[in-house]
Amino acid sequence: MTTTSSQDLTNTARPMVGTDLAAEMVAKAAERARKLQDATGVQPCLATVLVGDDPASATYVRMKQNRSKKAGIGSVSVVLPAETTTEQLVAELTRLSEDPAVHGILLQHPVPDQIDERAAFEAIAPAKDVDGVTMHSFAAMAFGQPGLRSCTPGGILRLLEAYDVPLAGAHAVVIGRSPILGKPAGMLLLASNATVTYTHSRTRGLPELVRQADVVVAAVGKPNFVRGDWLKPGAVVVDAGYNEGNVGDVHAEEAARVASLLTPVPGGVGPMTIALLLEQTVDAAEAQTARR
């Protein structure tokens, strides 16, 4: 696969770019969406739900809606006021879950502090959980069962596969324990026969643990947290962080001198997340149409 870098990593590491692979995935999803609509009259539809007026969240939602449109996927936008309660949000997500015209639901997170985010996620019907945020989706990933994957971890695995990273028998260290990023990433790596160590920002001796890893997934939400001298020479480094100023969780300049492969920020994991979201929306539409 021919790739182009969005970040100058000119030392040792080869950039593990997600842009081209994501474009291929979206093109294939668009073709499947067209075929479904031609055959059944059903256009895959993604509902996005945004609570409040956070500018960054609003930008992300608009970007996802634009990508959906380009892929031939319809979109429904629900914007709720910042003072929305958990009960009100759950009611809206339940309504969308019961709407046969909606095939996938994305709740933009984080949500305002007064909302029980887990309760909101669990209001999404598992068949429409195209972002992979429910406990049902996590259990399917953990038990190796068919289901919708958490989009960022699922995108990471697809990227590792595309770059022929050998996972069987490899030691993977995941830095981060989010239920929609770090934890499912570890489950998917384990399913690929990697040996997985979960760590986080409070792990004692973290640099020494990371230094043992063949594959590092940084998903801790702290800019430049992982330093170059934490890495084993030749390690594959996936930076799943995105912080203000287009800065990831890995110190890119230092890591580039040590790693063999390194995802740029932006242009690495981000495009894969959106591509998998759209692909899974088409998956969900096909499955729901077949059941009907």
UniProtKB/TrEMBL annotation:
It catalyses: (6R)-5,10-methylene-5,6,7,8-tetrahydrofolate + NADP(+) = (6R)-5,10-methenyltetrahydrofolate + NADPH; (6R)-5,10-methenyltetrahydrofolate + H2O = (6R)-10-formyltetrahydrofolate + H(+). Its EC number is 1.5.1.5, 3.5.4.9. The keyword Hydrolase applies. Residues 150-288 form the Tetrahydrofolate dehydrogenase/cyclohydrolase NAD(P)-binding domain. NADP(+) binds at residues 176-178. It holds the Pfam family THF_DHG_CYH_C. Residues 18-131 form the Tetrahydrofolate dehydrogenase/cyclohydrolase catalytic domain. Keywords: Amino-acid biosynthesis, Histidine biosynthesis, Hydrolase, Methionine biosynthesis, Multifunctional enzyme, NADP, One-carbon metabolism, Oxidoreductase, Purine biosynthesis. Catalyzes the oxidation of 5,10-methylenetetrahydrofolate to 5,10-methenyltetrahydrofolate and then the hydrolysis of 5,10-methenyltetrahydrofolate to 10-formyltetrahydrofolate. This is Bifunctional protein FolD. It comes from Kribbella flavida (strain DSM 17836 / JCM 10339 / NBRC 14399). The lineage of its organism: Bacteria, Bacillati, Actinomycetota, Actinomycetes, Propionibacteriales. The gene is folD.
